[in-house]
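Problem: given the chain below (248 residues), write out its structure.
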Amino acid sequence: MKKIKVAAVSYLNTKPLLYGFERNGFINSIDLVQDFPARIAAMLLNDEIDIGLVPVAVISENKAFHIVSDYCIGSLNEVASVCLFSEVPIEQIETVILDYQSRTSVQLCKILLKHFWKKHVIFKNAELDFRNQISGTTAAVVIGDRAFEQRLTSPFVYDLAASWKDFTGLPFVFAAWVANKKIDEAFLLKFNEANAYGLQNIAEVVSKIDYPLYDLKTYYTQNISYNFDALKQKGLNTFLNYLKESDQ
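Solution.
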């Protein structure tokens, strides 16, 4: 039987989910690849994979895409790893460099700048090594593990999930398990069980990772919220509606 192709981001925030895949043996029943979010979204759009943990903005690009899991990468307040970094306060920012690794995060920043901070800026697409350009009135959206490094150097850190919560009163969903085709229900049941296993064993997950820049127990239990519940669905729908408005 042909294995289901599954892609997940190679960030710290997916470690609990992938730990479940590995420890309960589910990984043997799938073809797993890891990459950064925007690349996984492209793979899903090109039908190179069946299920991807993708930036949720991709859902608006294809009506055939649908969320297939009870788990996601979300946040109820501060997410810590998706931020706008600057040397000056938000009022003084003139240019914002947009991280190339996730469309959802950059779209979230654009929405917040327009509707929450009510700030007009010049947007610039990031190159591979862009964090050294954070200087003066030029800020940047930095996501993932690199954001923990940037937190140590930038004097102004605007957490995008916390700002979204202040703006809407809702949690934010950065990425979800999305399929581009019908997936067998029995497979999805085991898929959810594998996700849950890692989340039920956070202490084990943390013990396997040597990471000095941030407390991972805090990250996995307070910053990231993995359950895709009704409130997160509401937050996601609100975000997708803002995306539709910006496309019109």
